[in-house]
Amino acid sequence: MEYIGDIFRPPSEANSLLVQVTVGCSHNRCTYCAMYARKKFQVKNWEKVQSDLDEGLAQPYYDRIFLCDGDALILSTGKLLRILRYIHDNGPHIKRVGVYGDARSVASKSQAELEELREAGLGIVYHGVESGDDQVLLHIDKGASSAEQLEAALKIKAAGIAYSAIVLLGVGGIELSEQHARNTAAFLTQADPDYLGLLMLTLVPGTPLYDEAHSGRFILPDKWGLLCELRTITAETKLTNCRYSANHASNYLPLTGKMPQDREKIIGLLDRVLESKNETLLKPEWLRGL
Question: What is the pTM of this model?
Fold first, then answer.
């Protein structure tokens, strides 16, 4: 199995076979992200992808596949269909194939193409929404507006593909914290994701946002401020059937649940922690990670 550079995947794909079909991220301009900074975006040739699939599919303990890198959905529909059909024909034990995707990659596909990808085996798209606030999205150079991100979300869901939204707490800084939380909640209510992951921003050396923080132009909310954002988003988002996860390595207070069933329980816990400000209830800094 060949991997070029560091490989990243969603937490829920921890036990999946990771197959690198693209290298890096075709956008690679988000100001908070260093994941693909040292990679030049490229598409792997079919022969290498096929070889990696053959090696991985020979291992019967994998029942899921995640196609790396940063936005494999940017591949042409024809290339994705070739990969998905090969998995279907040679890996009958594979139950789901997932990818990262964003508003640009979804916009490059017609509704019919997305439905064809679903029929070929694409089961889930992970979308790094980060924020539902246009001012925040512009500041972090996300490459799409909130309206464009919502259009992508609804398009994925309409195709019958599971939609997983990823939100980044703190990305608006102290200045935009409240509007980031409220507008993100409004976005999520409209998108109504099947899965929701809430992460806390970690400032990474070498990124533009880190440099802004170092110069004092960006101030990251403290742990209580981040938890306040989480509380606002949790309280103001109305979801119909969603697996809620705020248990990433970056989170101070790991939380999981099913929405809307566990909404009040999670809000109650957040309220108790925020009222007490008891740091022993939080994950210590040395246990947090990207």
Answer: 0.96
